[in-house]
Design a protein that fits this description.
The protein is α+β, with helices and mostly antiparallel strands. It is built from eleven helices and eight strands. Helix 2 packs antiparallel against helix 3, helix 4 packs antiparallel against helix 6 and helix 10 crosses helix 11.
């Protein structure tokens, strides 16, 4: 700022030797420049922004009005303060106060711009950033970084030596890292989960311990799962990040294949069995046509011919209910067509020997 002040000295010298008049000219000039910059921003850049299909740039231009104008005003006041050649302590305090105001103004702008960007991103359907839950994490990280920079620039504005503060922060951070080891483990695992996206909110997953349910929330510390019994399970990310997770909605689509295994008696007409199973799948309204249902003759069992009906459903969460309905429909279809469903049988042969002499029969 001192270099700029030296260059302005020559221009304001035309208004006479009175430093108060020169300082006033500097302040008023920068207010005018700020108004011109605000006008250019609102008219020219705003006109270009209005041509785009998104509202993000229009709202960013609206947010920029106040910071740009106030920045020019503060710059003018700072140069005017230098021009007045006040006592060293007063000048340092005044310049630091002006810098603090500028930091507050721009900190508020970047916070508002971040919230605006997050709101626009949330409206985009199908965005991986939104679906994975990473948007909330990214917003929180940006807020933390901006606040840290805000504190840093405040120290710089008031010429406070940061060496001792940074050393103290390092020692405190080391102590906290040991004390909050599990918390940090969950935090980094949460970042890894969000970045790798093995599942997202709304996916139907199966944990290594056997629990099944829909992912309702992916946070920094834990993941929440709603089971079919309407019981919410909260799993620390440090555990779930090192476990085997089956994502039944993680393929190209959310469709899920279910299997209905059934055995028929030996001697049954296998073509009739296949037609009956295919008809059961075709007549059910919630069984997908693409991929088409199929029937497979799997094995010659001990007591039955083993068949399997394979069909696709729209959502994994409906697997239990639709399996029940298909099993009922298969049983009724076999009963209508007189197809026998066998049960295990064992033949027991008992050999009677002739009664030895002297023993009662």
């Amino acid at each position: 700022m001192e270099d700029v002040a030296e260059q302005i000295d020559r221009a304001v010298g035309l208004f006479g030797p009175n430093v108060y008049l020169q300082a006033l000219v500097i302040a008023v000039s920068f207010i005018v420049v700020g108004k011109i910059a605000d006008w250019v921003l609102s008219r020219m850049i705003g006109r270009i922004a209005r041509r785009s299909s998104t509202e993000l740039d229009d709202k960013l231009v609206e947010l920029l009005h106040r910071p740009i104008f106030v920045s020019f005003v503060l710059l003018g006041l700072g140069l005017a303060t230098i021009r007045l050649q006040l006592p060293a302590t007063t000048q340092v305090f005044t310049l630091a106060a002006l810098k603090t105001i500028a930091i507050f103004i721009w900190y508020g702008f970047f916070r508002s711009a971040t919230n605006l960007g997050v709101d626009v991103a949330r409206r985009r359907r199908g965005s991986k950033l939104v679906d994975s839950g990473m948007l909330q994490l990214l917003q929180n990280v940006i807020k933390v970084v901006m606040f840290a920079l805000f504190i840093y620039f405040q120290f710089v504005a008031w010429n406070i030596d940061l060496t001792a503060w940074l050393a103290s922060a390092g020692i405190v951070g080391l102590a906290l890292s040991f004390a909050a080891r599990d918390t940090l483990s969950n935090l980094f695992a949460g970042v890894s989960i969000v970045a790798d996206a093995p599942y997202k909110t709304g996916d139907f997953i199966i944990l290594e311990t056997g629990e099944r349910g829909v992912v309702t929330h992916i946070g920094l510390r834990s993941t929440r799962l709603m089971t079919r019994d309407d019981v919410e399970i909260t799993i620390p990310n440090g555990i779930i990040g090192n476990s085997k997770i089956i994502n039944e909605a993680g393929g190209p689509t959310q469709k899920h294949r279910i299997r209905v295994a059934v055995g028929v008696a030996y001697g049954s007409d296998i073509d009739q069995v296949i037609d009956a199973l295919e008809s059961v799948a075709a007549d059910h309204a919630e069984i997908c046509d693409d991929p088409a249902p199929r029937v497979r003759f799997r094995a010659f069992g001990d007591s039955s011919l083993d068949f399997e009906l394979l069909c696709w459903i729209a959502r994994p969460v409906d697997r239990g209910r639709l399996s029940h309905e298909l099993h009922c429909a298969v049983y009724k279809a076999f009963a209508d067509k007189d197809i026998q469903i066998p049960f295990p049988q064992r033949d027991l042969h008992h050999f009677f020997e002739e009664t030895p002499p002297g023993f009662a029969a």
